[in-house]
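4.2 Preliminary Data

To establish feasibility before requesting continued support, the project team ran the inverse folding procedure on a target of 65 residues. The structure was first converted into the token representation described in Section 3, and no sequence information of any kind was made available to the design step. The complete token record follows.
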């Protein structure tokens, strides 16, 4: 499970870098930059849903004091 979270975070950072690359290389209204933003938002949503589902399925537990 830890590897899934790390892979998703890495994919989000790569998508962020891709968007920055297209922002610097082309104009801000580039369809490639918009696609990178869509992918980043989608991956973030998948990560959040995965973490919430993992919590409710008991795969992760909150720390106790």
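Position-by-position output of the design step:
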């Amino acid at each position: 499970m830890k590897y899934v979270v790390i892979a998703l975070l890495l994919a989000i950072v790569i998508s962020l870098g891709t968007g920055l690359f297209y922002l610097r290389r082309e104009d801000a209204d580039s369809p490639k930059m918009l696609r990178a933003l869509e992918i980043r938002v989608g991956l973030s949503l998948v990560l959040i849903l995965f973490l919430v589902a993992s919590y409710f399925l008991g795969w992760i537990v909150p720390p106790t004091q």
